[in-house]
Amino acid sequence: MKTKIILLLVFSLFLSCSNDDSVGYENIPIDFQVPSNFPPVNYDFVNNPLTEKGFELGKKLFYDGRLSSDGIISCGFCHIQEDSFTHHGHTFSHGVGDAIGTRNAPPIQNMVFQTAFMWDGATTHLDLQPIIPFTSEIEMHGNFADAINMMKNDAAYVKLYKQAFSDGEINSENMLKALAQFQIMLVSSNSKFDKYRRNEIGGTLTTDELAGYSLFNQKCASCHATDIFTDNSFRNNGLPINPSINDIGRFRVTELDEDKYKFKVPSLRNIEKTAPYMHDGRFYTLEAVLNHYSSGVSNTQNLDAYLNNGGTLGIPLSEIEKMQLMAFLKTLTDTEFLTDSRFAEF
Amino acid sequence: MKFQLKNILAVMALAIAFTSCSDDDDNKITGEGSIKLEFDNVYGDADFAFNTAYTNSNGEVIKATKVKYIVSNIVLTKTDGSTYTVPKSDSYFIIDEGTATSTLLELPNIPAANYKSISFGIGVDQEQFNLGATGQGDFLTTAQNAGMMWSWSAGYKFVAFEGTFTSSTVTTDTSYMVHTGQTGTSYNYNTINIDFPENAMVRTTITPQVHIMADVKHIIDGTNKISLTSNNMGGMGAMIMGGANLPLITANLSNMFEVHHVHND
C-alpha cells in the first residue's frame, strides 16, 4: 500500500514536470476586425501579432496591483470597465501612497485608432504609453526590474509568457507588448449610434437623437471628428484656467507658446459613463459641459478659433438644442463593451 | 624613348602598388574577433571628474555630479569602405561616468578586418521608437535602473548632465539638470562619425581598443552656447529638458567625440 502511494506520488511529480516542460508558444491568432464605420488603425500588428495568450497576459498585467510600488494600484484601479475604463466620480485619481495627480483618468477605448496618448500627447506609440502611468511617482510608481523579478517568481506569469511569446522571455519588451494587446482589444463599436451608422438592427434613432446628431455635425464634429469622435488634435477649449494648478497642457511636450493650455480632443464614446469631464474633471455632468460651451468659454491664451466667432465666444446652443445633443450623446453608450466579460477584472 | 621608359616605370610602380595592396588585403584576413570601445570623459584639455570646478565660456563655474549618455547603433567602416553594423538589438549602451565598467564596451563577433572609422548614435533612434516595444528586449529596464528612462514621455533620456553652477549673477551653488530626448517638436538623436588616427586591426587574436575622448564641455558649451544662468527659472535651478535648447545641445554632440588612439594588441 505504502509503495503504491509513493509510486503514485513519484508518478505525479513526473507528470507535473513534463507538463511544465511542454509549455510553449501558443500561437492562436486573434482576428482583429476594424468596424466598418471606423478610421484605419494606427498600429503595426506585424511587430506584435494579437494572440489569445498575449491578450490573456495583458489582461492579467492590467489588473495586477503587484506591478505598483505599494502592491495595490493596478491599471484597472483607475480604469474601471463599467465606466468605460475611467475612474468614475474621481476628478483626480489617487495613486500609490494616496498621491493625487492633476489630470482626470481618460477612458481606455479604441486606442488603436488614435495617434497620440495622454492629455498632452506625451507619447505617440501605444506600446510605450503604459510606461507613463506605470513609472509615475504619483500613479503606480513601478519599477521594471522589480516587476520582472516578481513575475519571474510567479508560476502563472512564467507559463503565460512562454505561451504568449515565441521567445518566452519575461522582460519589459514582452510586458509592454502584452499590455498593448489588451488595450488594442478594448474596442467600443456597438453602441446604438454604431448600429445606426451601419444600418443594423437596433440602430433606429429617435427624432431627438437624430436632431442631436445633426446639431453635433454642425457644431461639434469639426474637433470630435470621425466615428471615434476625435481628430487627434490639441486645442484650448476655453476652460477658465485654474490658478492652483495652472496646467499648461501640450506646452509641456513642445514648449511652444502656441501650445499653451491645449489638451487632446477626447473621444466622446461612452461619454454618459465617463464623468467627471475635461482634463481636470471639473464638470460633473454633461449639462455642465454643454453649458460651458454655450456660455462659459473664457478667452484664454490660444483659445481655439472655432470657439471665437468675431469676439462672440463659445457655441450658441438653445435649451432644446442642448436636450437634443444630450439625447444624441447617450446613443454613444456601448453596453456590450461596458459589460464584455473578456475585459472584466473578475 | 625616355618618354616610354617613364611610362614603363609608371606601370611598374602601379603594379607594385597593387601588389602591396593585395598583401594587406582584408580578404586574406578571416574569422571574427572583438573590439573594445573606451569612452573617456574629458573636459576641454583636462580629465573630467565630478565635483571639480570648470569654467565655461559663459563665465559660469560648473561642478557636475552626473554624466550619462546612451550610445547606440554602432557601425564600423573597413579600410575598403565596406561596413559592419553591430546587430541593432545588441547595440544600445549607457555610458555612465559614475560606473567605471560602463565606459568600456566590448563588442564580440566582429569580422576580422582593418577598420578606419566608427559611427554611433547618441540616444535611441526614431526608427527604433517607431517599432514600439519591439526589439527593445530589456533595455527599458536597464534604462530605468540607470535613471535614463524619460518617464513623462515614455522614452529615454539620451543625455543626462547634472550638477551645480555659479555665475556673476548666481552667487550660490544652484543646481542644473540638462536632459535630452524626444520631445513633441524634435527627435534629438544624433549620429556621430569619427575617423581612427590609425586602423583598428580586428583579428581572431587581436582585440583592438579604441580610446574615445568625450569632451563633456561640448554638451552646453560647444558650437551652441547654452547659458545656465538665463535658464535659471526663478532661482529654482536651470532645468533644461525641452524646447529649443535640446536641438542645439544635440547639434553640439557632433563635436564632442574624437578617437585619441587605437591599441592593436
TrEMBL record, chain B:
InterPro entries: MbnP-like_dom
Domain Copper-binding protein MbnP-like positions: 33-232
Keywords: Signal
Leader sequence residues: 1-22
Name of the protein described by the UniProt record: Copper-binding protein MbnP-like domain-containing protein
Lyase as UniProt keyword: no
Pfam families in the record: MbnP
